[in-house]
Design goal:
The chain is an alpha/beta fold. The chain has 17 helices and 19 strands. The longest helix is centred in the C-terminal third of the chain and has 23 residues, at about 350-375.
Length: about 500
């Protein structure tokens, strides 16, 4: 017998590696797994596998998990280890564990980590790295804390001005290079750049990244065309910033206006928001020809888009639309005031502003979908930590917005699974449901290809050798609600998100 590459002999070989101590039981804790000297062997039987890596669907399948890996995939006749815990799941659907590629707030470990896990988010990219994030990752990987995999960015490099008071400000090329060196020495997986960097400073960052063999990602520079930043090596462009200008027939004229705008160092946000307004104007002169040329350049340079649609939707909407969101109970109380302050500067107020922003958001959805159709890689990212963008919860909103934009349900799922693995350069089948891949899977009560909203209907999650059942999810939510009321950790700054 050979099922999806797993023969009976190969499978029995896996089982012999597990040993006779394999035990039944789904085990989960807010701390370390119980029975560290034993191995749980969950079996998912009767499921439909939605393998985003191969864009394939397999019905009435059996999947065996153990030692943190997928041990075997087959039909109902697949041999099972003695004492395995069998989950009979007819009518359920299995997808690879999801990733959120734009997150802030990992330092709220009793909130962010469990909210991600119970919503099927098995890994995320922390987009503003601090030393405590690296310590948290060490504790997660040591098994001291149960959490997703973390990819950690540098402190945000910006300058000579910035809207972020805690950004790493650089004003000369040497300062920019030193900022990169310091970031790499501090353990950053990539360098995060921000839009005030001009051409000279961005080039210095790019050159030092190339020398040290590290990638840079983040906002498009408001001073440098998107295609040029891509050619310098920028790996991801966040929030669709830069895209309306890059695809406008009026790009030259509008860039000259940006160059002539006065900037008050005492309030750089006015300038920053002014550029965003010019980008909104640019969307009215969209060129499909320029979009195709841009897509070719991004593909050639290995640049991806992480549009963070759920965050952009909030900033494009009247603030009162989100008042009373019941999910606020899962976040520390200070977020309510903090987010209100952010939206006071962003949210449209007048009827005309609301109309303009709704039209602009619809145009941005079309741009994202068209870049995807032209072959530009799309990564699922939410920008959680921003107003009404919730850890874990909002991943499913982002999937729905990607489909609303024009991606198929399969392509939307790939943006948070197999495409993430491809972006990260993982070659072990990560992000798929293949034998040997990490046992990071989400079991759903409905078909996500029939309706992407079915990703919200989570039956269980398996990750890091543990199974999170429906009962576990209820308990974890209650624990998060309680943890949200605990005093903030000393030394943790309330930073604006980006």
């Amino acid at each position: 017998m050979r099922e999806n590459g797993t023969s009976r002999r190969e499978f029995l070989g896996w089982l012999s590696g597990i040993g006779a101590a394999a035990v039944a039981g789904s085990w989960l804790g807010s701390g370390v797994a119980a029975a560290a000297d034993s191995v749980a062997v969950p079996v998912l039987r009767g499921v439909t596998l939605v393998d985003t890596g191969g864009s394939s669907v397999r019905r009435d399948a059996t999947m065996v998990l153990g030692e943190g890996r997928i041990l075997a995939v087959g039909g109902r006749d697949l041999p099972l280890p003695a004492g395995a815990e069998v989950f009979d799941l007819p009518g359920k659907y299995v997808i690879p564990g999801l990733w959120d590629m734009h997150v802030h707030g990992a330092f709220l470990e009793k909130v962010t980590l469990p909210l991600c896990l119970l919503h099927g988010v098995v890994g995320f990219r922390e987009m503003w790295g601090f030393p405590q994030h690296h310590d948290l990752r060490r504790r997660i990987e040591a098994g001291e804390v149960f959490g997703p995999r973390l990819i950690i960015g540098s402190a945000i490099i910006d300058g000579p001005d910035s809207v972020l008071p805690m950004a790493l400000i650089v004003r000369t090329p040497e300062q920019a290079r030193q900022a990169v060196r310091d970031s790499v020495a501090g353990g950053a997986d990539f360098v995060k750049v921000y839009p005030f960097l001009d051409r000279v400073l961005l080039r210095a960052v790019a050159e030092e990244c190339r020398v040290l063999g590290v990638r840079f990602a983040g906002h498009a520079s408001d001073h440098v065309p998107m295609s040029e930043s891509s050619s310098l090596g920028q790996r991801t462009f966040e929030h669709m910033y830069g895209l309306p200008l890059a695809t406008s027939t009026r790009e030259g004229e509008l860039r000259r206006r940006i160059a002539g705008m006065p900037l008050d160092p005492a309030d750089p946000f006015v300038w920053f928001k002014g550029v965003r307004e010019i980008e909104r104007e640019a969307a009215g002169s969209y060129s499909a020809v320029k979009a195709r040329v841009l897509a070719h350049q991004l593909r050639r340079n290995g640049s991806w888009q992480s549009p963070t649609l759920v965050a952009m939707r909030v900033f494009s909407s009247p603030a009162e639309e989100f008042a009373g969101d019941e999910r606020m109970k899962y976040l520390p109380p200070f977020y309510k005031e903090y987010w209100a302050g952010q939206l006071a500067r962003w949210a449209p107020v007048t009827a005309e502003e609301i109309r303009q922003q709704r039209e602009y958001f619809a145009a941005r959805l079309r741009m994202v979908a068209e870049q995807h159709r032209f072959g530009v890689g799309t990564l699922l990212g939410t920008d959680s930590g921003n107003p009404y963008v919730f850890p874990g919860f909002s991943v499913h909103e982002e999937l729905e917005l990607l489909v609303r934009a024009g991606l198929s349900p399969m392509d939307a799922l790939r943006a948070g699974t197999s495409e993430v693995a491809r972006f990260l350069g993982e070659r072990d089948g990560a992000g798929t449901l293949r034998v040997g891949q990490r046992a990071d899977v989400v079991v759903l009560d409905g078909d996500p290809l029939a309706s992407i909203t079915n990703t919200r209907r989570i039956h269980l999650v398996a990750t890091r050798g543990r199974v999170i059942t429906a009962a576990d999810r209820v308990r974890m939510l209650a624990e998060v609600e309680k943890a949200a009321l605990e005093p903030p950790v000393a030394g943790v700054a309330r930073v604006a998100c980006c």
